[in-house]
Amino acid sequence: MSQDAAPDIIYTVTDEAPQLAAASLLPIVRKFVSAAGIDVSTRDISVAGRILATFPERLTAEQAQSDDLAALGQLVKTAQANVIKLPNISASVPQLQAAIKELQGQGYDVPDYPEAPSTDEEKDIRARYDTIKGSAVNPVLREGNSDRRAPAAVKAYAKDNPHSMGAWSADSKTKVSTMGANDFRSNEKSVTLTAAQAGALKIDHTAVDGAVTVLKDGIDMSEGAIVDATYMSRAALMDFLAQAIEDTKADGTLFSLHMKATMMKVSDPIIFGHAVRAYLKPVFDKYDAEFKVAGVNPNSGLGAMLDVIAGMEKGAEIQAEIDAVMADRPPMYMVNSDKGITNLHVPSDVIIDASMPAVLRAGGKGWGPDGKEGDTNCVIPDSSYAPVYAETVEFFKANGALDVTTAGTVQNIGLMAKKAEEYGSHPTTFEIPADGTVKVIAANGDVLTSHDVETGDIWRMASTRNEAVVNWVDLAISRETTTGYPSVFWLDDTRGHDAELIKMITPILEAKGKSDTFQIMAPAAATRHALEVITKGDNCIAITGNVLRDYLTDLFPILEVGTSAKMLSVVKLMNGGGMFETGAGGSAPKHVQQLMEENHLRWDSLGEFCAIAESLRFFGEAHGNAKAAVMGDAADAAIIKLLGEGKSPGRKVGQPDNRDSHFFFALYWAEALAAQTDDADLAATFADMAGALSGQADTIATEMMAGRGAAVDLGGYYNTDDAKVAAVMRPSLTLNALIDG
Ligand SMILES: NC(=O)C1=CN([C@@H]2O[C@H](COP(=O)(O)OP(=O)(O)OC[C@H]3O[C@@H](n4cnc5c(N)ncnc54)[C@H](OP(=O)(O)O)[C@@H]3O)[C@@H](O)[C@H]2O)C=CC1
Ligand SMILES: O=C(O)CCC(=O)C(=O)O
Ligand SMILES: [Mg+2]
């Protein structure tokens, strides 16, 4: 470790496929960077680790776990931060419950998740679990704005080796359905706080009988912050969903709901629950009272609901009714048609940023219950960002699928710092308890916003800090200057929040003499512009808010390079540190299943490789460590060779997988270090390593392949057994000896 108290580089311990990959890759990374005197430590931010850290009083001394997320949350506010952040599970309630059950089975005395807390103790437990639920990690760590793009090598590789793309036909019946009225988009009111209004904001609910309830108090907000308040009407949502179900049936397409129940962890599970209710309306009309008694909660999805129903006295009768209703409804888009897992089974199974690009890449198709592909009605209730997907559907219907061999690229600069915009809104989101008025009241008593609401409406407040916006514009200017690509702010001047943001960025751009360089377009027009640019083979930069950052950094990579796993994803932390996220996609749960069933892990660590290279270069600059910079550049050379040689993981058992790709990354990294002339010591050290790795390559390949095809035991899913994982993920004793020796 260097002189500073902070660790040199932190590699996060997360969940599922990326965590399994780390068991193989991290020892290699540690060995290599030790040659530059760099130490890589880990911090556990997995869902299991966070549960254990939350209930220390119930664990033995050996079981206790430190609160690594809190510690990292502090570190990212310092200039010393250098964090390689792998994707982690943002747990839905069913996932949280499964993790709790597994930990209990392993002898940890963590409490059950109280679905309907009544006592003070249960309310306390529930409140603690709610801090773990959903997207609870990224907002804490993202103390900076986002710079995501496909590395040039990845883009070049994709052009030469195009991934499969479904064909689009002009008469595809696929479409996007969205509310457009009485939703978050149309009810939004926004203000930018004056000095007098800054301080502690309050949210009041005044019922029609005049009773005032404080929904939230003491929300600290500084001058220049943009405060947005809005709501989605439950009645309007239910009408919309009923209509969408009818339309889907009339169109003869598949019904699919796309939302983000993980990052929007308060609002979207409620909306998801309404969709389950709408789809099974006749069943709810008949059994609602009994469901309430039995604890059926549609917000956790159809899967959890069917489990509870199976245990009810009338279980068989209700199940028969459900089957009958479903037979009469339009067929559902399936998450897994073999296993009967529908779109409405688990709220975290269909996450819009990944699910919509999958439909678009497949030529507008989804899987139906019959296991056949079909056109689908993509139901995206709120209309803030649905136009992006609607426009993309129309563009591909008119122009055919994107030609991967010639397409340019859309890079993204995303406003993300300080829990910006909707993704920071869950502590101030409420399911309205009674008809009335909700007001946001400033520190000086000014009423900032006021909305008349009805019982069951979903009201939320979001905020965006001025310093985050200024930093975001600076980052955009810097990328535009570096690349010269046409750069567009995706902002809609007819929307409350965006209008305030435009007022804020305009003088900044003017002051820097950049007003004419940047365009501002509403999301639908900006989508069309971006698609036109890349169709011509040119490149552009999308400068977006937080939600579109999330959506676009899956959408364009999945279309352009087949996956968002291969993205370079840098978070320039506002206080000077760096965080390097691996890719833009998630933790790919189906990859873990495949590993457990047939000992093949098709997770592609290219995102990790890119993050390692960036982290090392950043370390080199921050600490004047020239060896680190050399190692970073050599890692980039290794990535280019790995892609060129086709050493990325295959999808099927028997093909080289994640582990084999790590061997090749090590080999090519060592070769690149041996070949460089900037640092003779590193060249000598790694000439030996490269020689040893290439000399043993055949033995290592054979050892790696042993046991493929057979089931493996990881000792758990959420809280795996380190020794068992190491045995599976590091099967080559020859490689291990070279790395550990
Ligand atoms: N930064 C973070 O921490 C993020 C976390 N998540 C979390 O991940 C979980 C799953 O989310 P989901 O939306 O299903 O997204 P995933 O990215 O896990 O899955 C979508 C699909 O993307 C492809 N994919 C993603 N990464 C890789 C990779 N490295 N190698 C190969 N293929 C890859 C696979 O598709 P294919 O079949 O086409 O190969 C995969 O099935 C959730 O818990 C979610 O909250 C999600 C996004 C970001
Ligand atoms: O935090 C999460 O739940 C997912 C993050 C994500 O999808 C993204 O940043 O692209
Ligand atoms: Mg995403």
UniProtKB/TrEMBL annotation:
<dbReference type="InterPro" id="IPR004436">
    <property type="entry name" value="Isocitrate_DH_NADP_mono"/>
</dbReference>
<feature type="binding site">
    <location>
        <position position="651"/>
    </location>
    <ligand>
        <name>NADP(+)</name>
    </ligand>
</feature>
<feature type="binding site">
    <location>
        <position position="550"/>
    </location>
    <ligand>
        <name>Mg(2+)</name>
    </ligand>
</feature>
<dbReference type="GO" id="GO:0006099">
    <property type="term" value="P:tricarboxylic acid cycle"/>
</dbReference>
<feature type="binding site">
    <location>
        <position position="138"/>
    </location>
    <ligand>
        <name>NADP(+)</name>
    </ligand>
</feature>
<feature type="site" description="Critical for catalysis">
    <location>
        <position position="260"/>
    </location>
</feature>
<feature type="binding site">
    <location>
        <begin position="586"/>
        <end position="587"/>
    </location>
    <ligand>
        <name>NADP(+)</name>
    </ligand>
</feature>
<dbReference type="GO" id="GO:0004450">
    <property type="term" value="F:isocitrate dehydrogenase (NADP+) activity"/>
</dbReference>
<protein>
    <recommendedName>
        <fullName>Isocitrate dehydrogenase [NADP]</fullName>
        <ecNumber>1.1.1.42</ecNumber>
    </recommendedName>
</protein>
<feature type="binding site">
    <location>
        <position position="148"/>
    </location>
    <ligand>
        <name>D-threo-isocitrate</name>
    </ligand>
</feature>
<keyword id="KW-0479">Metal-binding</keyword>
<keyword id="KW-0460">Magnesium</keyword>
<feature type="binding site">
    <location>
        <position position="353"/>
    </location>
    <ligand>
        <name>Mg(2+)</name>
    </ligand>
</feature>
<keyword id="KW-0816">Tricarboxylic acid cycle</keyword>
<keyword id="KW-0560">Oxidoreductase</keyword>
<feature type="binding site">
    <location>
        <position position="554"/>
    </location>
    <ligand>
        <name>Mg(2+)</name>
    </ligand>
</feature>
<dbReference type="GO" id="GO:0046872">
    <property type="term" value="F:metal ion binding"/>
</dbReference>
<comment type="similarity">
    <text>Belongs to the monomeric-type IDH family.</text>
</comment>
<keyword id="KW-0329">Glyoxylate bypass</keyword>
<feature type="binding site">
    <location>
        <begin position="135"/>
        <end position="142"/>
    </location>
    <ligand>
        <name>substrate</name>
    </ligand>
</feature>
<feature type="binding site">
    <location>
        <position position="591"/>
    </location>
    <ligand>
        <name>NADP(+)</name>
    </ligand>
</feature>
<dbReference type="Pfam" id="PF03971">
    <property type="entry name" value="IDH"/>
</dbReference>
<keyword id="KW-0521">NADP</keyword>
<feature type="binding site">
    <location>
        <begin position="85"/>
        <end position="90"/>
    </location>
    <ligand>
        <name>NADP(+)</name>
    </ligand>
</feature>
<feature type="binding site">
    <location>
        <begin position="602"/>
        <end position="604"/>
    </location>
    <ligand>
        <name>NADP(+)</name>
    </ligand>
</feature>
<feature type="binding site">
    <location>
        <position position="549"/>
    </location>
    <ligand>
        <name>D-threo-isocitrate</name>
    </ligand>
</feature>
<feature type="site" description="Critical for catalysis">
    <location>
        <position position="423"/>
    </location>
</feature>
<dbReference type="GO" id="GO:0006097">
    <property type="term" value="P:glyoxylate cycle"/>
</dbReference>
